[in-house]
Design a protein that fits this description.
single chain, globular, about 300 residues, about 15% strand, 5-stranded antiparallel sheet, two-stranded antiparallel ribbon
């Protein structure tokens, strides 16, 4: 086993691991104690979390825990650089916060969950998890991804336990719609199967959007079945490093209606441009994520 620690005081803005992985950004991490997404106001905990990644030798487990000013990690590979990337540890939070508007609700959100970072999850699992996210609460979305792991993922042995890797595109493409519906995917089942097939067949990969201008990247991702503008923005923000992306979900549309009504332009593209500019331009997605977690957790009555 490989293991190591990262000094949290060395990170610009520190770290709130629980808020980072339990704030609706990611459905690809789980808690060792099985209590993922039990609390809406998740913050400040010291639980062990795990996820799986793909390496040249197959899937590997990565575990992390925040305690006593350190982030501990464990894996079967030297995973420190991957942990840095997965959890956005190189992001300069104080500098990012300087780009946010000087609004009371924004300040409250940053203060409440300071140290929350934006994840960089693997692209294909992120694509699938956000296809599953339509009209679902975060706990149910997470549960779907765990069910996909159990049913179609490879078993990985690590530290005396077994874990389920996220399924490959080939494995999900081979699943029947009925099998996927049995995991409570509902009408999302054909979307998952067909989008997985696009990746498995080499027709398209979500990573192909990297390097395109932001709006072109969003448009490229909508080629996948079941991916509209909002889901595309989630993939861009939480996997592909487009920190300006602002997914216009129900919570953020409510935020716009109450706090930034001048940004509502009547369609997704124009409203997106207006709210991105208002929330900080190239780092608008960070401000959006803090607002989402704060307001969804009951920080203010909407």
């Amino acid at each position: 086993m490989e293991r190591g620690t990262i000094d949290i005081t060395s990170l610009p803005g520190g770290l709130d691991l629980q808020a980072t992985v339990e704030s609706g950004q990611s459905y690809l991490w789980d808690r060792e104690d099985g209590r993922m997404y039990e609390r809406e106001a998740a913050s400040g905990g010291d639980a062990w979390y795990w996820t799986t990644l793909r390496s040249d030798d197959g899937p590997v487990v990565v575990r992390v825990r925040q305690t006593d000013g350190e982030l501990m990690w464990e894996s079967s590979i030297d995973a420190e650089s991957r942990v840095q990337m997965l959890l956005g540890l190189d992001d300069n939070l104080p500098a990012i916060r300087e780009t946010a508007p000087p609004d009371a609700v924004v300040d409250e959100a940053f203060d409440a969950y300071w140290g929350m970072r934006i994840v960089r999850d693997p692209a294909f699992p992120t694509l699938i998890s956000f296809i599953c996210s339509a009209q679902m609460r975060v706990g149910r979305i997470h549960g779907m991804q765990q069910a996909l792991r159990r049913e179609f993922g490879e078993t990985v042995a690590f530290d005396g336990r077994t874990y389920d890797a996220f399924p490959t595109p080939v494995a999900l493409a081979a699943a029947s719609e009925a099998e996927l519906r049995d995991l409570n995917l509902g009408y999302r089942a054909p979307y998952v199967k067909r989008s997985a097939g696009m990746v498995a067949d080499g027709e398209a990969r979500p990573e192909d959007a990297i390097g395109l201008d932001y709006e072109d990247a969003r448009e490229a991702l909508t080629a996948f079945v079941g991916v509209g503008d909002k889901v595309a923005d989630c993939i861009l923000l939480f996997s592909l490093g487009y920190l300006e992306a602002v997914p216009l979900d129900t919570w953020i549309r409510g935020t716009i209606e109450e706090y930034y009504p001048e940004c509502d332009r009547g369609n997704y593209a124009e409203t997106s441009r207006a709210i991105r500019e208002t929330l900080g331009g190239e780092y608008a997605g960070y401000t959006q994520t803090y607002l989402f977690h704060y307001l969804r957790s009951g920080g203010r009555e909407q």
